[in-house]
Amino acid sequence: MDWMELVIETTNEGSDLTANILYEAGAAGVVIEDPGDLREIVWKENDWDYIDPGVLNLQGDKVLVKAYLSVDGSLDKKLAGVRKKLKAMQKKHEDLGCLKLTTGRVDDDNWAQGWKKHYKPLRIGQNIVIKPSWEDYKPRPKDIVVALDPGMAFGTGTHESTVLCIELMEKYPVKECRVIDIGCGSGILALTAAKLGAGWVEAYDIDEIAVKAARENIRLNGMDRIVRVETGSLLDKVQGRAHMIVSNIVADVIIRMCRTVGEYLMPEGIFIASGIIDERFADVKEAFGDSGLEITERLERGGWTALVARMKG
Predict the structure, then answer these.
(1) End-to-end CA distance of the chain
(2) Which of 155, 236, 247, 250 has a CB 3.0–4.6 Å from the CB of 182, allowing a cystine?
(3) Ranked by mean pLDDT, which of 64-68, 111-115, 207-211, 262-266 comes out on top?
(4) Which residues pair with 105 in a beta bridge?
């Protein structure tokens, strides 16, 4: 299969808004190359174990936001939508860089080899470690290791929205619980739930490529008996109630989900929602309130927000 690589040149301040445009166009994930973030990690945290020295050659303040869309009959319409939104964003914000869009075709093999060299083991929260399947890693005591090969589904765990989601999942006990992952991508959140002790996990995604990648990762981690992955749109295929529902998508989709998510939660169940850019938090908060959802916790990082909500009463 061929893919169209979209690369948008922006600034640190514009990376979140730009990423959201690509998500809304149908990208399953984005890659943000921000030299400022790398410098901060290296000099403030000195976390050399998780950084490929090759990426430290990035210089300056130019930020590149990359995403991939499948080359099909809808591609031209999606590209036109991206260009329209970039033009509108440039008129509204003058300090977000040139917002230049560059495109180019790549195939599966070239794409995979191009990004794998920068993907290293990543520690999230207290004990979660996301380890690329092709990388060696010696676990520390109490480490919970999730081996992952996201393929074309993305979901590597490096994006702020995913990190926030995993941090919240680690905080709320799921042992022997039923967990549902909506928009599962590579299966990273479903696998995290299983590794944290969930009794049963269901994962759904509308993208068949994501479903295939997630199933392969479930087998890779030996979690076939705990995690089931199916093709499905949002909550359409969910039956019964769960202790935890997690979704790392975009604000508009989360707003649609919140109207019915309460029907699928246990009385004390929680909804963890991420992928919300800060500018859309007010919209999501209003929609949650209208749907009877009470936000009990909010985490923010790098312009992204993740929420924990319960049904009121």
Answers:
(1) 49
(2) 247
(3) 262-266
(4) 4
Distance, CA of 37 to CA of 234 (rounded, Å): 33
Question: Cα-flanking dihedrals φ and ψ of residue 2, to 5°?
Answer: -95, 150
Do residues 271 and 310 lie in contact, with contact meaning Cβ atoms separated by under 8 Å? yes
- What is the pTM (predicted TM-score) of this model? 0.73
User: 265-277 and 293-301 as β-strands: parallel, antiparallel, unpaired?
Assistant: unpaired
Residue 43 DSSP class: I
* Residue 140 DSSP code: P
Q: Are 9 and 99 in contact (CB under 8 A)?
A: yes
The type of residue at 100 is: K
CA atoms within 13 A on the CB side of 109: 0
CA distances from 168 to 21, 123, 213, 235, 262 (A): 25, 14, 24, 21, 19
Cβ atoms of 245 and 261 closer than 8 Å: yes
Neighbour-count burial of 113, counting CB atoms closer than 10 A to its CB (0-12 exposed, 13-18 middle, 19+ buried): exposed
Go through the domains of the chain in sequence order and give each one's CATH number.
Answer: 2-115 (3.30.70.120), 122-311 (3.40.50.150)
What would the pLDDT profile of 93-121 be if each residue is shown by its tens digit?
Answer: 878 889 999 998 876 666 555 556 656 77
